[in-house]
Specification:
With 134 residues, this protein is of the alpha+beta class. The protein has helices at residues 3-24, 27-31, 52-67, 97-102, and strands at 34-41, 48-50, 71-81, 85-95, 108-117, 120-129. Strands 2-1-6-5-4-3 form a six-stranded mixed beta sheet. Strand 5 (108-117) and strand 6 form a beta hairpin.
């Protein structure tokens, strides 16, 4: 396997593991493989956070929402890796049962920026968004 393919495979596993951690409401798993200086643009306020502690603080309310029956399912994932930086784009089914029933094709869009630190990939940027609704 080429280094590029190995990196893409490692990043895919990292993101799939992150998604499983979100589903399991495993905060340590969600934070794993994220840089101390992570920057995230998110759907609910605060719409922008910087740093791992601010990122950490966004998850308990989301876990509460999931606990009430909302879904968070990785639908598709594409990864592009260079030697030191990479990005991934994904679509997720994310919503309450009613929201997904009313609009089953509505997908949360996810863009992740990664960099290699000490020989391992870490997430340094996340961007979450939904398509504009009429």
């Amino acid at each position: 396997m080429t280094t590029e393919r190995a990196d893409e495979s490692a990043i895919r596993a990292l993101i799939e593991g992150w998604a499983r951690a979100v589903q399991a409401r495993d905060l340590d798993g969600v934070l794993a493989d994220h840089s101390e200086g992570i920057r995230m643009f998110d759907v609910p306020p605060p719409n922008e956070v910087r740093g791992i502690e601010a990122y950490r603080n966004t998850w308990p309310p989301f876990f509460d929402w999931l606990e009430r029956g909302a879904a968070f399912e990785l639908v598709s994932l594409d990864v592009t890796a260079g030697d030191e930086v990479a990005f991934a784009t994904a679509l997720l089914g994310c919503g309450t049962e009613e929201e997904l029933r009313q609009d089953p094709d509505n997908r949360l869009r996810l863009t992740i920026g990664l960099r290699k630190e000490g020989g391992r990939w870490v997430v340094s940027h996340e961007h979450h968004s939904f398509p504009a609704r009429d």
